[in-house]
Amino acid sequence: MGSYVEKARENHVKKKVEEALRSKMKAKALMECDQYVSKYAQCATGRTFSVVWTCRKQAKELNTCLHQFTNDNVLEEMKREYMIQEEGKVSASAI
């Protein structure tokens, strides 16, 4: 049973690391979807309540784009990459 606990600890990504990865994921999504962010911002300029129905199309396009880059699969892949990097650092320092 001890080895299972050790494995779980090794594969666990600490909360602060996960928060940093989420932040990185969101920043990348905003960069990738910049054209949709601009379209939405342009539509929303000068509007208050009407932005909800006037810019519905732009908001949907933006959300669709953002979801491609901010979902659980993307986060899990980033966690795997992080763990591989950390294992590489540990291996390199052990030599």
Automatic annotation (TrEMBL):
GO terms for cellular component: mitochondrion. It comes from the Eukaryota. InterPro entries: Cyt_c_biogenesis_Cmc1-like. Keywords: Disulfide bond, Mitochondrion. Transmembrane segments: none annotated. It is found in: Mitochondrion. Its main location: mitochondrion. Belongs to the CMC family. This is COX assembly mitochondrial protein. It comes from Cardamine amara subsp. amara.
